[in-house]
Amino acid sequence: MPAFHRLFFALSGLALASLARGTPADDIQHELLTGQDVAAVDQAGTEVRLAPTDEDLQVLWVRALLTEGRYPEADKAAASALIWLPDSIRVRWIARESSLDNGEPEAAAKLANEIREYVASRPYLYRDPPNLVTFGRVALLLGADPKDVMDKVLTLAEQGNPALREVYLAKGELALEKHDFDLAAKAYQAGLKQFPDDPDFHCGLAQAYASGDRTAMLAEAHAALKIDPRHVPSLLLLVDQAVDSEDYAGADALITEALAVNPWQPEAWAYRAVLSHLRNQPEAERVQRGNGLKFWPHNPQVDWLIGKKLAEKYRFAEAAAAERQALAFNPRYLPAKTELANDLLRLGQETEGWQLVEEVRAKDDYDVEAYNLSALHDTMAKYATLTNDDFVVRMTTPEAAVYGVKVLDLLSRARRVLTQKYGVELARPTYVEIFGDQKDFAVRTFGMPDIGGFLGVCFGRVVTANGPAANAAQPANWETVLWHEFCHVVTLQLTQNKMPRWLSEGISVYEESQADPSWGMHMNARYRELILNGELTPVGNLSAAFLTPRSPEYLQFAYFQSSLVVDYIISHYGVESLKAILRDLGDGREINSAIAAHTVALPKLEADFAAYARARADQLAPRLDWTRPDAVLLAPGEESQLGDWARRHPDNYWALRSQARDLLAAKRWAEAEVLLTHFLALFPTQIGADSAYGQLAAAQRAERASEAERATLAKWVALDDEAADACLRLMELTEAARDWPAVKQYAERFMAINPLVPPPYRYLAEAAPQLGDPATAIAANRTLLRLGAPNPAEVHFQLARLLHPADEVGARRQVLEALEDAPRYRQALALLQAIDRSPAAAAATAPPSFPSPAAVSTLPVPITHP
Q: What's the confidence (pLDDT) of residue 451?
């Protein structure tokens, strides 16, 4: 039985519940939890001199000194406490922490081993809940199984004393360390039920929320600071948020508050070094990093944190260098190894990146992020790889066979257009990974499977994207997604990843609409309303709008506003000004300074842009009456009142929407057509799920007005790149009209939304031969077979016809496949006879085989499989 298991069983007797009492230790704890650390130090020192064998007092005195950054004094206090309490493992644990803060990791390791030895030799002395928690912490440190610690030590301690705060803190810390944020949240929530006014629990819960719900994270951090305005962990959490939001002045102010509590707080100095790095101030960065390492010169946490934040700013090369320095200080520091693995994977240095993932997994099989990445590596090993001179594309093998060539063609076109426009020479190759499962995309991109809301992410040379299969519930145009992400490749490499998020996203959305008018984001009724209601975010704060939006709608508005800012800069100052701003950013210039150098100072730009945005909003359907009716009229159950109001406002947006819905529900098609035609004449750019184009087409279809329906749908598809149903109906209508160019056009537009279903390939297979394009017809039929055509015999027969007489062997194989499915298929039998009478009949009588590589292929690019 492993040593730690024996200790777990030895300690599994009934834990003694400690009784709550009003003591000096309680007073000192209260002072520490409410920001009165100076008073806590003074009182603890006094009380320890009066009762030197009081374990709680000794621990609190050292804790208070560490809180204030008085590290040498804390070390002396810990040494004195060990003289008075030589058997105390709790004192040894706080002494270990003090040793680390004083730069003595060897002494800290010695103390941890002593705790293990003390418990192993006399386990009966350490069965009470506080000592169980301490033993659990040291067991984790020395390599015990985290699940065993959680189940056999910490849970036992909680059962022994449900009112012990340390047990909930230990559980939460363990879960956070292993990236199990749901478990961490549960632990801290349980602690808050016992200690609702404890800032440590609010802060822990904020950390658990940080990777997902930033709004909840901010609420919990502020709750902690309401209790203790000097709560350093919460201040640092807000620093982290401010850095992410590019509010560097706010981050500086918060760091100053934290350093007022502890002038040598390593994390605070690490954050300050990050800010100096981002401001291109290398000397200040060197001094600030040195301050963070003053008492512990080889503290790996400082460089780990610097690297982590730089990585979050997409500065992966600099981040990797910081993580390597952290590992030079401590090669066993797993957070740095995990972060370095991610940095390398995002730089395209996959061999070393995946090797580091496996090293972390081997050392800590409880770490959720490492587990997820390791499992993903096994999944991606089965992916197909498509390559050309500029790209390495990885996709699931079935998807690569269906539309992999189109992916490479699209990316190559984007590269040609955007590199020429922005005048940048890109590193080769660009890596693009397209995932068939949203969870795999989330793990590759964020390390966790439960982060949604993203279609794609670009790291500079590496792009990750959800493919059509991953987006099946909410289809998106994969072509515009890849164009958007490749534009990030261009701008990030042009600026060496030194650009604010709003500008990066704004350019990518803007370039979508330049590539295709139906792509990108356009002014709509809701964006008009938000702009005219004064809900524009100041340009200088736009990056923050992506982090804590009030709703998904506001997140989309942040993308739209960012693209509108880019449109404003280009339309008023020219694309060369935008390119000059990007070049300045790459040289390390601060964004506001770069904007001022090539346009105007930021305050004037913000004012001028706001006026521009309001004018653009006013220009949307200017003949419409946009007056919103009272809220009660829009509420469920008030439809009749809204109908009366609508009749009095015939050109009102809300009235027209309401009347159209009512007429369609009543199947009053002719009246609906008249009203919707009028509506679209007033608002011809209306798209979206409730677009009047779709409603008008439905009315026209009900009236069997096919030509009018086709014209309506064509207008809709030209405006909306995600109108899949409209494309499908247009394929039906244009096929009936034998308008083969249009059939091909709408089939290809549909495939840009969903290339994984048979209908567009069936229409394309029919249209292509009529257009003199047998190669496209052959590829479409082959794809139909891959996707599971409902009539495989017919598809095999059509393939045989297309291959005959150029490829008699291939044609014979296809016709035999057709006859295998349908033995009495007369046309197939006739074709087989014709093939057998041909000069190649001898070859056709040989056992059937698949076409040679020289035959027509659906994948005319290098593709490899594992």
A: 76
- The CA distance from 144 to 159, in Å, is 21
Please state the separation of Cα 161 from the chain's center in Å: 40
| Any domain includes 76 | yes
> How far apart are alpha carbons 63 and 32 in whole angstroms?
9
């495939």: which residue's tokens? 751
Distance CA 644, CA 630 (A): 13
Q: Tell me: do 372 and 390 sit in the same domain.
A: no
State the Cα–Cα distance between residues 552 and 555, nearest whole angstrom. Answer: 5
- Whether residue 660 is contained in a domain is answered as no
pLDDT at 12 over 60: no
Residue 641 lies in a domain: no
Note every long-range contact of 449-458, with CB atoms under 8 Å and residues 24 or more positions apart, other chains counting.
449/372, 450/212, 451/211, 451/212, 453/552, 453/555, 455/481, 456/481, 456/482, 456/484, 456/485, 457/485, 458/485, 458/486, 458/488, 458/489, 458/492
Q: Residue 276 carries which side chain, given as an amino acid letter?
A: S
Shared-domain flag, residues 155 and 93: yes
CA dihedral of residues 594, 600, 602, 606 (deg, nearest 10): -130
pLDDT-based confidence at 626, cuts 50/70/90? Answer: very high
The sign of the torsion formed by the CA atoms of 215, 221, 223, 226 equals negative
Evaluated on CA atoms 506, 509, 515, 521, the torsion sign reads negative
What's residue 532's pLDDT?
A: 97
Range of the domain at 425: 382-494
Reported residue count of the chain is 866
Q: Which tens digit of pLDDT belongs to each residue from 458-507?
A: 999 999 999 999 887 788 999 999 999 999 999 999 999 999 999 999 99
Query: DSSP labels for 743-782?
Result: HHHHHHHHHTT-TTSSHHHHHHHHHHHHTT-HHHHHHHHH
Confidence of residue 640 (pLDDT cuts 50, 70, 90): low
Of 58-72, 234-248, 437-451, 758-772, the least confident: 437-451
Per-residue model confidence as pLDDT tens digits over 267-319: 999 999 999 999 999 999 999 999 999 999 999 999 999 999 999 999 999 99
Alpha carbon distance 477, 686 (integer Å): 18
Q: Find the CATH number of the domain harbouring 21.
A: 1.25.40.10
Yes or no: say if 633 and 641 are a contact pair by the CB < 8 Å rule.
Answer: yes
* Averaged pLDDT for residues 104-120: 94
Name 1's Cβ contacts closer than 8 Å, sequence gap at least 6. none
**Shared-domain flag, residues 797 and 848:** yes
pTM of the model: 0.86
User: Could you tell me which residues are beta bridge partners of residue 87?
Assistant: none
Where among 115, 136, 163 does a domain terminate? Answer: 163
Model confidence over 596-618: pLDDT tens digits? 999 999 999 999 999 999 999 99
Kindly report the number of other CB atoms within 10 A of residue 517's CB atom: 12
Is there a domain that residue 104 lies in?
A: yes
Residues 339 and 447 in one domain: no
Q: Which of 136, 163, 190 is the endpoint of a domain?
A: 163
- Asked whether residue 331 falls in the same domain as residue 430, the answer is no
